[in-house]
Every structure is written in structure tokens, then in C-alpha cells.
Design brief:
Layout (H helix, E strand, L loop, with lengths): L19 E6 L6 E4 L5 E4 L6 E16 L7 H13 L2 E11 L7 H16 L6 E8 L7 H13 L5 H7 L8 E9 L2 E10 L12 E6 L5 H14 L15 E6 L13 H23 L7 E9 L2 H13 L1 H8 L5 H9 L11 E6 L2 E7 L2 E2 L4 H8 L3 E7 L5 E8 L3 H8 L4
Parallel strand pairs: 5-6, 9-10, 11-15
Antiparallel strand pairs: 1-4, 2-3, 4-5, 4-10, 7-8, 8-9, 11-16, 12-13, 12-15, 13-14
Length: about 425
């Protein structure tokens, strides 16, 4: 297992690496409500940004991973086309929240227009722009507010604009999500930083929620994509809030190369260091996404160890994390190990899990609730105390090998149903 705390953490999020500026703005895609003197609600401009721009001082080698949902948002289609057209380079990101621009007859046209508006303002080619959207699906995206936002976004670009951008991409998120680290490659100090959004409709498969990661470390296109794909597999793709995979999932990794290190173009010590740093950023963002799941009161982590291989460990850990019954048990602090074993048993793998040991762990203690596949008598009061904490680990040892994986999720609460029952209103 890689270390989630190996490198020094720094401020700056998506602007932490050399050469990246960002901004955020409220343009009116989201309708913020206020109650008037007559008791009626009406939409008014709010303080929360709903559109963001990120720009690099130079063209960046860019890697991406996208949703595997058969229904894909127009921004996903356009961004993939742009990267294919220009050989994997980008210089800017334009992203809105409040509307996913998905399942719309004019979706491609609107996504292309967002790229063109951004490119014209920056003086770059439209295919050098990454476009992303998040929010309600099947609702036409108004272009006029975006057109009016381009000038404020451009004028607001700053090397310290990461907070404005990270706030702008939030939908039902309750907190912004940013993380950055510094490391050394080729004798030069390098940085990786990023921002993420996501609270619901999260169950990635070869994709993520919306995540934008930047680095000043010089890395070849092939190695950049290799690193991103490898680390996505053991971070974002090991995340599940509700089992629903979004149509707009996008993860972008942009490299400005401004750190001045010798380009990482092959396997070796520097590439391993780069991947370790990328893992730390992406794993911590994944953890933040899980903890901020819609209506969640608890971060729930499942560590599956003793597996015959990594894929098996991932499949079993994710099966536990996404189980509605496990999630409900965690919410109620019910130490029902049968739900854990059940979820392990229907995981889509041939591995025999019938002799597994299962522990519950939190800052309140650690307790063995199942040994060699059999439930045990245990201290119910201690188990209740352990599961009453806001961060819980389910530790499952299969005794079938040396592989290990971690999956991140959350509990399932009444508020999840409430949030999604009136999501559009």
C-alpha cells in the first residue's frame, strides 16, 4: 500500500504547481433563493460561484480518464475529441456546476461554445480547452450566463485563485476539496495539486467525479497517462457513495513542466516518486469525497488484505463499501458482521472468503467480530462505541495471499433520501 502522508502538504490546490492560475464566478446557472417580505421565494444572485476557469501559462501535456457510462455528457465527448485532435495537449479548463449539459439536443454545440468562448479570450485554439459540467441531467444549459462570465473569469485569474475555482465546481458538496504536495524529481522541487467535487451519484468505474489535477513536473505524455490510469484504479475507482455512476465523470492531469526537472519518459525512481505523490493527492481527495457523501455522518473505509491479487482486493473492498445494508448498519452503529460477510460473498470474484477475519476499528478502539468466517461473541458496548465515531474502518483479512486494497465510502442516512428526493427543486 502506498503512503497517504509521505510528502509535505502545501496550500494552493489546483494553483499550487508553477504556472497555473484560476478563478471562479457566480453567473446565474444556479438559482439561489431568498424569501421575500411576502413569504415567497425568488431566485437571486448568491455568493457561491457556479463557473470556474483554470489556465496554464504554457501548453500542458494532458492525460484524462472519463466515465464508462454509456450515456455521456456533452462535455465529456467534446473534451475527448479535443485531446484526440491535438495529441493530448491543453492549456485551459472551463467548468460549470448546476447543469450537467447531458441528454440535451444542443449539448455538443453548447460544450463547443464554452471552449470557443474561453479560447477566444485567451488567444488559444478551442481544442486546447477542457470543458466540464456538473449538475442536473436533461436540463438545457443556458449559454448567455456563461458568455457574460468569461470576462470576469479572465480578469479574476490569479495564482492564488484556487479557492474560488474549487468552490465553483461544488453541487451538493458541503465543503470544497483541495490537496497539494511537494516532492523531488531529477533534483528539482516539484508540485502536484488538485481540486475535486462530488457528493452524490458516485460509483466510479474507469472514471471519477470531476477532478482537475495539475503538476509542474515534466512528464512525457505516455508516462503521464500511465501514472493517471494506475492511480485512478486504486483511488477514485475505489470510491462509492451510492452506487450510481455519473454521466459526466472526468479526471484530468495537466503537466506544465515548469519545475525544470529532466522529463520523466520511462520507468524508474523518478516515475515511482511521481506516482507516489500523485497517489497522495488523489487518495486524500478520494477520502474527502467519501466523507462528504450526500447526507453522510460517517466516513467508512474498508481495507481488504490477504487477497490473492490486487483486483480481488479492490472488488471485495468496494463490494462492502457500496452495500446499502452495510451503510445502514454503519449509520446505526450496528455491529452486524453478517452484512459484511454477505457483501464479501456476493463480490464478483472467485476468491473464497469463507475464512476471513473481520475487525471494526476507529479511534474508540478495535474489535474482532468475525474469525475464519464465523461470527463471534463480542463486547457489544465496545463495538457500539467504535461504530459511533465519525470515521470507521472495516478491516477484512482473507488469508489468501499478500495483496491489499482500500475502498472509501460513507453511511446511508435519512438525509440522503431527502437531498435526492428534491434535488431539482
Amino acid at each position: 500500500m502506498r503512503d497517504m502522508d509521505k510528502f509535505p502538504v502545501r496550500d494552493g490546490g489546483v494553483c499550487a504547481a508553477k504556472g497555473f492560475r484560476a478563478s471562479g464566478h457566480y453567473c446565474g446557472i444556479k438559482a439561489f433563493m431568498q424569501t421575500g417580505a411576502d413569504g415567497n421565494e425568488s431566485p437571486v444572485p448568491g455568493k457561491k460561484n457556479d463557473i470556474a476557469m483554470v489556465v496554464s501559462d504554457v501548453e500542458c501535456r494532458t492525460a484524462g480518464v472519463f466515465t464508462s457510462n454509456k450515456v455521456k455528457g456533452a462535455p465529456v465527448i467534446v473534451t475527448k475529441r479535443n485531446l484526440e485532435k491535438n495529441g493530448g495537449y491543453a492549456q485551459a479548463i472551463i467548468v460549470n456546476s448546476g447543469n450537467a449539459n447531458t441528454c440535451n439536443a444542443d449539448g455538443i454545440e453548447k460544450a463547443e461554445a464554452m471552449c470557443r468562448l474561453t479560447a477566444d479570450k485567451l488567444g488559444i485554439a478551442p481544442d486546447k480547452v477542457i470543458v466540464a459540467s456538473t449538475g442536473v441531467i436533461g436540463q438545457v444549459l443556458p449559454l448567455e450566463p456563461i458568455e457574460k462570465a468569461i470576462d470576469p473569469l479572465y480578469n479574476g485569474l490569479s495564482y492564488t485563485g484556487n479557492v474560488e475555482a474549487a468552490t465553483a465546481i461544488m453541487t451538493t458538496d458541503t465543503v470544497k476539496k483541495e490537496y497539494a504536495v511537494t516532492f523531488t524529481a531529477g533534483g528539482k522541487e516539484c508540485t502536484i495539486g488538485g481540486m475535486a467535487k462530488g457528493s452524490g451519484m458516485i460509483h466510479p468505474n474507469m472514471a471519477t467525479t470531476l477532478n482537475f489535477i495539475t503538476t509542474d513536473c515534466a512528464v512525457s505524455s505516455a508516462m503521464l497517462q500511465k501514472a493517471l490510469s494506475e492511480i485512478v484504479k486504486i483511488t477514485y475507482n475505489c470510491l462509492s457513495v451510492d452506487g450510481d455512476q455519473s454521466t459526466n465523470d472526468t479526471c484530468m492531469l495537466m503537466s506544465s513542466g515548469l519545475a525544470g526537472n529532466t522529463e520523466i519518459a520511462a520507468e524508474g525512481e523518478d516515475f515511482d516518486t511521481f506516482k507516489d505523490a500523485l497517489y497522495q493527492v488523489m487518495a486524500n481527495l478520494t477520502r474527502m469525497l467519501a466523507k462528504d457523501g450526500e447526507g453522510a455522518t460517517k466516513l467508512v473505509t474498508c481495507v481488504c488484505t490477504g487477497a490473492p491479487d490486487l483486483d480481488t482486493a479492490i472488488i471485495i473492498a468496494k463490494s462492502v463499501i457500496r452495500s446499502p445494508l452495510v451503510k445502514c448498519a454503519m449509520y446505526g452503529a450496528d455491529a452486524n458482521c453478517g452484512r459484511i460477510l454477505c457483501a464479501m460473498g456476493y463480490a464478483e470474484t472467485d476468491c473464497d472468503v469463507t475464512e476471513a477475519d473481520v475487525y471494526y476499528i476507529s479511534k474508540a478502539g478495535k474489535i474482532l467480530v468475525c474469525e475464519k468466517g464465523l461470527g463471534l461473541k463480542f463486547d457489544e458496548d465496545l463495538a457500539k462505541a467504535i461504530l459511533s465515531e465519525d470515521e470507521i474502518e472495516i478491516y477484512a483479512d482473507l488469508h489468501r495471499g499478500d495483496a491489499e486494497a482500500t475502498a472509501w465510502g460513507c453511511d446511508l442516512t435519512y438525509d440522503y433520501v431527502k437531498i435526492n428526493g428534491d434535488y431539482r427543486s
